[in-house]
Amino acid sequence: MENEPMEARLAAVYPELPPGERAIVRVLLDDYPFAALGSLRALAERAGVSPPTASRLFDRLGFDGFAEFQAAVRDGARARSRLHEFVTRPSVSSTSGSAPPETGGVAARLPEGGADGAGSAGRKAGAAGSAGRDVGAAGAGGGGGSVLWRAADELRAGLDSTLAAVAEPLLEAGAVLLAEARTLWALGGPLSELAAEYLIRQLASLRPGAHRVPDSAPARARTVLDLGVSDVVVAYDFRRYADDTARFVHAARGRGARLLLVTDAWTSPLADQAEILIRLPREAAGPIAPLAHEIAVTELLLVSTAAHLSPAQRLADLDALTQAL
Fold first, then answer.
1. Which residues pair with 234 in a beta bridge?
2. Please, are residues 22 and 12 in contact by the beta-carbon 8 Å criterion?
3. What is the C-alpha to C-alpha distance for residues 273 and 265, in angstroms, rounded to an integer?
4. How far apart (Å, rounded) are the C-alpha atoms in residues 262 and 188?
5. Which of 72, 139, 181, 237 has its CA 20 to 30 A from that of 15?
6. CB 234, CB 260: distance < 8 Å
7. Which run of H or of E encompasses 211?
8. For residue 184, what is the enclosing H or E element?
9. How many Å apart are CA 189 and CA 239, to the nearest integer?
């Protein structure tokens, strides 16, 4: 059982639990994994039980306290790809003409008769919800359209949440760092490296000394060798967090370089190294990966950085050189 996904472990133990511990499981599964990321007291309050009742659940699951349970949730989530999560949703693989059953609610993940024996009521509510979704799917152009509309809704919600969560003073502080650094070096993981590439391409038009971190270890070593307190590293680090990103950042920080970190709701292990920490909210995970939201934050950083520079002549010279070459 220890090797099962945490959601499956919670659902499996659910029928054997007393009412208070069942309430904790329902909260966890209804908002998994984010419900597990706060404090034990906050989780207990959401479930309407006492902290000792919540603690007994994690003891029953074989964890040495709530902190160990949280670590297991984080580790399990870090190992999962957003793309894998998306394509394995029933709605994505369904070939029927109507929208499939919802996967987000707790009833779908608890055994028959789940919510304290309210299985029949849950099934009736589910049937009603399914009928409503069928109507929506038909209006959106059938089952395939329902998947696309849901993805579009997630993208819109993520972008709105991202723009609301990234406060202007935080962006302003990041822009000052990017404008005043002697040199800038950006890197990311397998997908977020695209955001790093975009940042550097645009920054190199606004100011000198903006570079992508090279790929090879010898080239990275030469880069770190010349770093100091006047230099800035911009790292995009998202679940699954990249080991080579962490190694470069730790080495750069060891030479005195400052760090601007863009990360997700889980918060990169590099967070405690960052002078400026931009954390995208949970909605920014997107239907597959948060690249659209990373680029949106990057755009805001670029606009704010440009306001701290006087790039007009540089941009004019760049245009002239581009035409000449």
1. 186, 260
2. no
3. 17
4. 9
5. 72
6. yes
7. strand 210-212
8. strand 184-188
9. 9
C-alpha distance across the termini of the chain, in Å: 63
Sheet order of strands, 184-188 included = 210-212, 184-188, 232-237, 258-263, 276-279
Closest to 89 measured CA to CA, from 147, 9, 129, 156: 147
Which residue in this structure is represented by tokens 């987000």?
104
Given a contact cutoff of 8 angstroms between Cβ atoms, the answer to whether 277 and 290 are in contact is no
Q: Are 174 and 277 a contacting pair, CB within 8 Å? A: no
CATH 3.40.50.10490 fits 166-324, yes or no: yes
88 pLDDT more than 90: no
Is residue 188 exposed (0-12), middle (13-18) or buried (19+ Cβ within 10 Å)? Answer: buried
6-79 fold: Arc Repressor Mutant, subunit A (1.10.10)
- Closest C-alpha among 276, 233, 267, 239 to residue 253: 233
Counted residue by residue, the chain has a size of: 325
Distance of alpha carbon 204 from alpha carbon 210, whole angstroms: 5
The domain ranges of the chain are 6-79, 91-157, 166-324
Distances (CA, A) of 71 to 31, 75, 121, 134, 290: 17, 6, 35, 39, 23
Residues 191, 291: contact at Cβ < 8 Å? yes
CA distance 29 to 40: 15
Tell me the torsion sign for CA atoms 244, 247, 252, 255.
negative
In order, the DSSP letters of 5-45 are -HHHHHHHHGGGS-HHHHHHHHHHHHTTTGGGSS-HHHHHH
pLDDT digits (tens, 9 = 90+) for 239-295: 889 999 999 999 999 999 999 999 988 889 999 999 999 999 876 766 676 788 999
**Residue 166 φ then ψ, to 5°:** -90, 100
Instruction: Report pLDDT digits (tens) over 197-226.
Output: 999 999 999 999 999 999 999 999 999 999
Dist. CA 27–CA 10, nearest whole Å: 11
Given the DSSP bridges, would you call strands 276-279 and 210-212 parallel, antiparallel or unpaired?
A: unpaired
